[in-house]
Structure formats: structure tokens, C-alpha cells
Specification:
single chain, about 375 residues, alpha+beta, conserved putative lor/sdh protein from methanococcus maripaludis s2 fold, Elongation Factor Tu (Ef-tu), domain 3, OB fold (Dihydrolipoamide Acetyltransferase, E2P), 4 domains, six-stranded antiparallel barrel
């Protein structure tokens, strides 16, 4: 019995030894394969860093505002009797837009005019009698005062009727009307917005450090994110002399001609003011920048040696200091030298010393004045 148990134990030990040896060989093979494994190279596009002239500019986000803009409202309460405009069309200064019902006021005006005519007749008669010394001066003064009061009452009634006609105070484009025929409106109720379209203001703010660089009369360019595209050139017309205590920014106002109506009130635009100074710096596509909270960087393509001593094409991460952006390009103040080959797309999938393969058949946009297809 003991002999059979010993044979069983020997067999088990032998079996476990064989299994352990096989697993040991497999682990050793996996370790060797891991050491010899290398990630396949990443496909990237590159651009050669070249010095180029770069104009000093100030960029900001601005908002469009009309030179004249108002929401017309009812001056007097009443019932809307006529609407003489169509929403969205251009109207001239003084053009009648809405008339309120004035039948009752006109009837009262007729009565007041009759009283005025009677007072006028009495005034003219008293004037002749005064010249003949038939009546006293005090009696004539009383009749003259009554006539003036009647004349003032007529003018007051006529002015009240005129105030029930809403006219355009200036030329511009009306919005969507907010009243209907037969509707009763109270004093102050909105009727329709009216905005002048040419010229237009573009208001923007700049940091207080940049404010001394701007002057009234300097050219301003604006680009909208909408389908309007590039805007006509404007001019700085006002600079606020007060610095905002909260943001430490200075408000600037530019005036743009808007004959084609491409600028709309309330729209946001990107404003660029040229300072008339240019320098030669290196600019790269914005897609080449690896933006990160701890610092912005780029990847430079160069020859490297792997652990096995073989040479391969890899990337070196280089931290850079960025300047202003113009179109698709960003100025690089420090960190890159002319002639270096920089990765222009695919930076998000790279790491230091990663192997790459360059494929420049399709390049990302790299224009100072980009024109996207959807604009």
C-alpha cells in the first residue's frame, strides 16, 4: 500500500515539474518577445519651420451695434386702426408705420375749433371796439386771453391726434411687428423694433496694456463666424478713457460702412487692428500645437537611435512660447529654429521618441486668410 502511494506521489511531482517547465519556457519567450517588440510608426504630416514677416496686431472679440436703434412704442393708448408697413423691410425717416383710432379725438377737435373760431370773432370785434374806446382795456384783455386759450386747446388736441400716428424717427429696417389691427395698446407698449443699418458700430475691449497702442482713425478689420465672411474695413472712432475696474479692459468703438447689410446688430465678430509694425518670426499651423495646461509644445521630427542601436525616424517634444494667431497660423516666439521639421497634424497621438512615418500628400490648412467651405 505504501509503495503504491509513493509511486502516485512521484508521478504527480513529475507531472507538475513538466507543466512548470513548459510554463517557464512560455514566460521566457513572452519576455523576450516583449523586449524585441516596437510600436508601429505613426503617420503624420510635417512642415518645415521658416521665418516670415509677421505684422503686429491686436485681436479681440467684438459685438455689432447699430448707430441708431430703438423699439418703437405707443405714445398714447388706443386701438390700432391701420398698419402701413411690412415686417423686415426698409423704411424712410418720417414714414408712417401705425395709426391708432382717432375718431373720438377728431370730433372733440371739431368742437374745440368751433370754440376757437367763436373766440377769434369776439377777439376781432373787441379789438375794433377798443380802438373806438367803446370797451375798457381790461375787458379786451379778457377776450384776448379767452381766444388764446381756445387756440391752445386746438393745438393741444391736434398734437394728441398726431401722437397717435407712429412714424419712423430715422431711416432703417423694421423688425417683426408686435401688434395687430384692432388690438388695444397702452402707452409704452412695443410696436416694432427699428435699426439703422449703415453705418454700424463694432464695440470691443482690449487689455489696458494694449490700449496705448490704439488710436482714433486706425483701420480695423472684422471677420464674422456667419456666412457674411470678411467685412469691409472700418475705423476706430472712439476709445473709452476709463479702464473697467472689474476686467481691467478698455472699451473701443469702431465704425463700419454697411451698405450691403452684412453686419447685423447683436452679432459677434473677430476684430483685428494692425499696429503698423512687422517682425520676422517663425509661424506654424495651429494644428501643430499640442495645447496643455502645463505648457504648449510641438513635436520635431529627427533621426533617433533605439535601444537596439538601430536608427529610426522619431519625434522630440519641444515646449514653445506662443504669440498671436492670424488665420490658421500661430506665431512661435521661442522653442523652434528655422529649418526644423515640425509635425503639423497627428500630434494628439504622439509621445516623446515615438517612431513616425511622414506622409505629406494631404496637408492641414495653413493660410493667413482662411476661407472655410461653409462660409
Amino acid at each position: 500500500m505504501n509503495k503504491r502511494m509513493i509511486q502516485m506521489l512521484v508521478a504527480v511531482v513529475l507531472f507538475l515539474s513538466i507543466i512548470g517547465f513548459v510554463k517557464f519556457q512560455q514566460i521566457q519567450g513572452a519576455i523576450a518577445a516583449h523586449k524585441s517588440f516596437s510600436m508601429p510608426p505613426e503617420a503624420v504630416t510635417t512642415v518645415v519651420a521658416q521665418p516670415q514677416p509677421w505684422e503686429a496686431t491686436v485681436e479681440a472679440t467684438g459685438s455689432v451695434a447699430p448707430v441708431q436703434g430703438v423699439t418703437l412704442s405707443a405714445d398714447q393708448p388706443g386701438v390700432v386702426a391701420a398698419i402701413t408697413f411690412q415686417s423686415g423691410r426698409f423704411v424712410r425717416s418720417g414714414e408712417t408705420l401705425v395709426r391708432l383710432d382717432t375718431r373720438q379725438e377728431r370730433a372733440q377737435l371739431a368742437s374745440t375749433q368751433a370754440q376757437r373760431d367763436l373766440a377769434k370773432t369776439a377777439f376781432e370785434r373787441s379789438k375794433k371796439l377798443l380802438e373806438q374806446n367803446v370797451i375798457a382795456q381790461a375787458e379786451f384783455d379778457q377776450v384776448a386771453a379767452t381766444y388764446k386759450q381756445a387756440e391752445a386747446a386746438v393745438n393741444e388736441m391736434a398734437a394728441g391726434i398726431d401722437r397717435k400716428t407712429i412714424r419712423a424717427p430715422f431711416s432703417g429696417r423694421v423688425g417683426i411687428r408686435q401688434v395687430n389691427i384692432g388690438q388695444y395698446v397702452h402707452s409704452g407698449d412695443p410696436i416694432v423694433p427699428l435699426q439703422s443699418e449703415d453705418p454700424m458700430y463694432v464695440n470691443f475691449t482690449v487689455p489696458q496694456q494694449q490700449a496705448p497702442l490704439l488710436h482714433v482713425g486706425e483701420a480695423v478689420h472684422a471677420v464674422a463666424d456667419s456666412s457674411a465672411g470678411a467685412m469691409p474695413e472700418g475705423r476706430i472712432t472712439a476709445i473709452n478713457p476709463v479702464v473697467d475696474e472689474t476686467t481691467r479692459n478698455v472699451q473701443v468703438q469702431a465704425t463700419f460702412h454697411n451698405a450691403h447689410g452684412r453686419l447685423r446688430a447683436g452679432a459677434y465678430v473677430t476684430v483685428r487692428v494692425g499696429l503698423g509694425k512687422s517682425a520676422t518670426i517663425v509661424a506654424l499651423p495651429s494644428s501643430a500645437i499640442n495645447y496643455a495646461p502645463y505648457g504648449n509644445s510641438i513635436f520635431i521630427v529627427e533621426k533617433m537611435k533605439g535601444p537596439d542601436g538601430k536608427e529610426y525616424l522619431g519625434v522630440r517634444q519641444q515646449f514653445v512660447q506662443l504669440g498671436a494667431a492670424q488665420g490658421d497660423r500661430v506665431a512661435i516666439l521661442t522653442g523652434v529654429k528655422p529649418g526644423e521639421q515640425v509635425v503639423s497634424s497627428g500630434v494628439f497621438k504622439l509621445r516623446p521618441s515615438a517612431a513616425v512615418v511622414v506622409n505629406n500628400k494631404v496637408q492641414p490648412s495653413n493660410s493667413m486668410t482662411p476661407k472655410p467651405e461653409d462660409s
